Automatic annotation (TrEMBL):
Its main location: other. This is Adenosine deaminase. Residues 7-343 form the Adenosine deaminase domain. Its cofactor is Zn(2+). It comes from Gouania willdenowi. Belongs to the metallo-dependent hydrolases superfamily. Adenosine and AMP deaminases family.
Length: 353
């Protein structure tokens, strides 16, 4: 099913073209022991349900190729927008950790010697350039969210400062990703970063309740003041919390195929938590998460929802309207986005002359 759509939860470093990885590796003299798209796809793609740890390990197969490389970072941002446009997406919020793409905090690697690692600030500027050029070329709107990492609390204050610096130049929010067992009591830098984000009007989302318990979702909402929850499937384990968040109209960024292959949810799609959210008319979106590692597309996630979860065309429309309403765009741009959706869905007459 192809509808004008919105995507709110997709990782830039999990949405790179395989051909681009091969091209950059060749230019930089990196031996990947794979020479074709098919060979590299077999190494990267997760074929069967696994654990989140196995899923995250797939990134080690290729991240060293693009990390710290100016040309590659700008290229993957530009191509990402092209890919989204081909999927029928009219607005996307793509997230990434600037430090990981800058190659910060990892051992120097020989092929980086001549170019040198980038600063996280340089990474944000390069991604912004690539997204802007993609917007102009493919006539969609793309914004970014900067990710803090639970295992690297020392990065969080720098990341919120980057959010502040680029708040009116492409960056619309902050995220916290990584091992959910690392809570904010043990890592107060995350809490301080989110307090600063709230003080400065920076929008906030948090990965929570994907594989971690409902208590991680509660912490995200009550301590980090999250406006959206990344995944959030385990919220259903605490019915009091779930009902409270339904009343608050909390937005959940859900990823059907990802949740199966990472082992976050039951492998039988007909038993997926998304069905409960759908039946309760919750505020949520459907997203790809990491289409490169999942060897998938947004349309594939939609087809899963339609085939196994009882989604109708009307529900897809409702979900995308919820997504637009819960986007991190400024209010004026949000209303313009909603108008585009209403026109595309035949809910109002076109205002075009």
């Amino acid at each position: 099913m192809t509808l004008a759509g919105i995507e709110l939860h997709v990782h830039l470093d999990g949405a790179i073209r395989v051909q681009t990885i091969l091209d950059v590796a060749k230019r930089r003299g990196i031996d990947l022991r794979a020479h074709t798209v098919e060979e590299m796809t077999r190494r990267i793609a997760l074929e069967e349900p696994a654990t989140l740890t196995v899923f995250l390990d797939k990134f080690n197969q290729y991240m060293h190729v693009v990390a710290g490389d100016r040309e590659a970072i700008k290229r993957i941002a530009y191509e990402f927008v092209e890919n989204e446009a081909k999927e029928g997406v009219i607005y996307v919020e793509v997230r990434y950790c600037p430090h990981l793409l800058a190659n910060s905090g990892v051992e120097p690697i020989p092929w980086n010697h001549d170019e040198g690692d980038l600063s996280p600030d340089e990474v944000v500027r390069l991604v912004n350039q690539g997204l802007r050029e993609g917007e102009r070329a493919f006539s969609i709107k793309a914004r970014s969210i900067l990710c803090c990492m639970r295992h690297m609390p020392s990065w969080s204050m720098e990341i919120v400062e980057l959010c502040k610096k680029y708040q009116h130049d492409g960056v619309v929010g902050i995220d916290l990703a990584g091992d959910e067992s690392l809570n904010c009591e043990a890592n107060p830098d995350h809490r301080r970063a989110y307090e600063e984000a709230e003080r400065c009007g920076i929008h906030r989302t948090v990965h929570a309740g994907e594989v971690g318990p409902a208590s991680v979702v509660k912490e995200a909402v009550e301590v980090l003041k999250a406006e959206r929850i990344g995944h959030g499937y385990r919220t259903l384990e605490d019915q009091n919390l779930y009902r409270k968040l339904l009343k608050l109209n909390m937005h959940f960024e859900m990823c059907p195929l990802s949740s199966k292959l990472t082992g976050a949810c039951h492998p039988d799609f007909t038993k997926h938590p998304i069905i409960t959210f759908k039946n309760d008319k919750a505020n949520y979106s459907l997203n790809t998460d990491d289409p490169l590692v999942l060897n998938s597309t947004l349309q594939h996630d939609y087809s899963i929802a339609q085939k196994y979860m009882g989604f109708t065309e009307e529900e897809f429309k409702r979900v995308n309207i919820c997504s637009a309403q819960s986007s991190f765009l400024p209010e004026k741009e949000k209303q313009e986005l909603l108008l585009k959706l209403y026109e595309a869905y035949g809910m109002i007459q076109s205002t075009a002359f």
